[in-house]
User: Fold this.
Amino acid sequence: MKRTLILLLLALVAVSSAEFSGKRGYGRFGFRAAYPVALTEPYPQRFGNAKNPEYLTSVYAAMEGGIGFSDYLELTIGLNLHFATARALDSNGEELPAYALTVGEGSIAVGASGYFVKGDIRPYGHLDLGVSFNYSDFDNVAGYTRSLALAVGVGVGCQFVFGDVFYLEPFVHYRLHASGSYTFNVDEPGFVPVDQQFLETPMVLCAGLGFGFLL
Assistant:
C-alpha cells in the first residue's frame, strides 16, 4: 500500500506541467474524503456495565473554499462532517445489541492555509477555528446526546496542480470538538436533560485524498 502511494505521488509529479501561481485574488473550491485513523471513544455513561464501546464504521468528508492572497497564503472556510457507528461488549466480550450507537459530528470553520513553496506542487499547513455540533442516537434505547462547542482543526497536505485549474490533494487532518461534556435527553414528558462528561474530548485524526478547482 505504501509503495503504491509513493508511486502515485511520483507519477503526479512527473506528469504535472502547470506553473501555478497564487495570482492575488484566486479562488479555490474542493472536496475531501478520508478514513479516520484515530478516534475518541464515545459515551461510557450510557453503556452501564458494558466494556468501553468501540467504533465499527467511520467516514470523514469535507467541502472547502478558499481565497488566495499570494502564492503562500490562503483564507479558507470549510464544512466538515464525520459519521460513525459504535457497539459495546459485555464482560464476556459478547456484543450488546441494545447499546448500538450512531455518532455524527459537523463543523463549520474559517482558517488559513500557508503554502511552503511556489509552483505546481504546493505542500501546506492549515489551521482553522469554528463551531462544532456533536450528536449521537442510541439505535435500540431511548435517548440521544448533543453538544455544541468550539471546533479546532489542524492539518498538513500537498496540492498537485494540473493546468492551473485542477488539483489533487493527499492530506492528514486533526479535528477537535473542544468540549468536555454533553447533554443527554429523552423526548418524553417530564424528563429533564442531564449534563455528563465525555470519556475523552471528541476528536478525529484522518488521512485521505481531496480534489478541487482553482478559479
DSSP finds one helix and ten strands in the chain. Residues 51 and 93 are 8 Å apart (CA to CA). The mean pLDDT is 82. Residues 2-15 form the longest helix (14 residues).
